[in-house]
Amino acid sequence: MTYAVTTENLTKRYGKRTVVESLDLRIPQGAVYGFLGPNGSGKSTTMKMLLSLIQPTNGEVRILGEPMTRSSRRQLLGSIGSLIESPPGYAHLTGAENMRLVQRLLGLKRQQIEYAVQAVRMQDQMAKKVREYSLGMKQRLGIAMALARQPELLILDEPTNGLDPAGIEEMRTLLRDLANNGVTIMVSSHLLGEIDKTATVLGIVSQGRMLFQGSRSELMAASTPDVIISCTRPEAAVSHLASFQAALTADGEVVVPGLDDKQTAGVVAALCGDGLGVFGVRRDEQSLEDVFMRLTAGGTL
User: Fold this and answer.
1) Quick check: 138 and 89 in contact, CB under 8 A?
2) Domain that holds residue 131
3) How far apart are CA 254 and CA 248, in angstroms?
């Protein structure tokens, strides 16, 4: 597999405080990489290190196969578009004037600016001053600025912040279209449902450490959902399964966490052997949010 971004042992410390610890990113070319983690987990710091805005304490960053160094920084950044934290733009200028500044600073063609503006559907808003924009419109303008150079890699921190549902849907479509055209996208978000619908690869971090990296199907396959057992005398079943941390649900069923298929078969056999009739066994349905919350709360897959 060819990777657009790799890091080895990427670490950032501020004094005695470690913000990012030994992070090994693997972002495939053409993927939408969903970068997930609680607030303060090191996501923004990691993105800034990828963009050489912050220097790592230890470790290496490779972009498009090349190490990010002082000598290669300028060339590599020419292949990257980014939107980190607050959307850019001069509030006293119009959207069009801001885009013309980008055009002149980067030496771009007019067609590149037009493409970027159309991609985020801001054609009808470019005559307005940026101070008149909503937060969602500012987000779109910032992404248009990031897209103007037609980058190979796009790094976006919370790009749907401030967008209404229609805007979020448009952003989802835009990211998919860009990825289908070969652009690699790294996107962080607290909207797990949106990442779930958009990302092809997930990276989950907590307290600066990588907890999981891979596809959604790999994440769900690696996780172990709770087993729900319907049986006669459920209170007795909970008592029998106390060592498995079994509990009684509001519907009178028995929930047992962390059982694989072999253990489940053993538990059912034990209950039946103790004279408890088992008439239903199923896995609890889980969402990406369920797995995310379990992992970032200190649990395991």
Assistant:
1) yes
2) 3-214
3) 5
